[in-house]
Amino acid sequence: MKSQLDDKDFKILNILQKDSTISVKEVGNLIGLSFTPTYERIKNLEKQQIIQRYVALVDRQKLGIGLIAYCNITMKEQSKKTLENFEAAIVKHHQILEVVSTSGTYDFMLKIYADDIDSYNDFIVNVISDIPNIGQYHSFIVLNEVKKSTAYIKQLPTSKKNG
């Protein structure tokens, strides 16, 4: 169900997606509200689970994670039980940052982080290929991250002046 948000709510979301450590008072100053209504709006966005959680984004390369790959999976069988078993098996691995079910040629797409190509190959051979009912998997190594964002920033309509 889509929530009814106004311009101030969207402004709050835009600000917090850029920097979730900003204080409620600062958010209020930026959107033109005092502390209490700003605080109540943020709490309401959290209660509705529009704001799901606050996280720290890390520099993967400084952690020694030198490789990102997308691995597309085709299952041998697409029964509900088979798909649920695959999902339960795959979400346990910290190297996998995202798992999405897709339409078309592939059943799933995984975003996988690895230290290097050897550790990625080891993960594919010893983990992915051992999961039951996988028919095929195809890897795509990321060469360059052209755009990387975690925020969905809604463009607010600009007001039109008569005249």
TrEMBL record:
GO terms for molecular function: sequence-specific DNA binding. InterPro entries: AsnC-type_HTH_dom, Dimeric_a/b-barrel, Tscrpt_reg_AsnC-like, Tscrpt_reg_AsnC/Lrp_C, WH-like_DNA-bd_sf, WH_DNA-bd_sf. It holds the Pfam family AsnC_trans_reg. Residues 5-66 form the HTH asnC-type domain. SUPFAM superfamilies: Dimeric alpha+beta barrel, Winged helix' DNA-binding domain. GO terms for biological process: response to amino acid. This is Lrp/AsnC family transcriptional regulator. It comes from Paucihalobacter ruber.
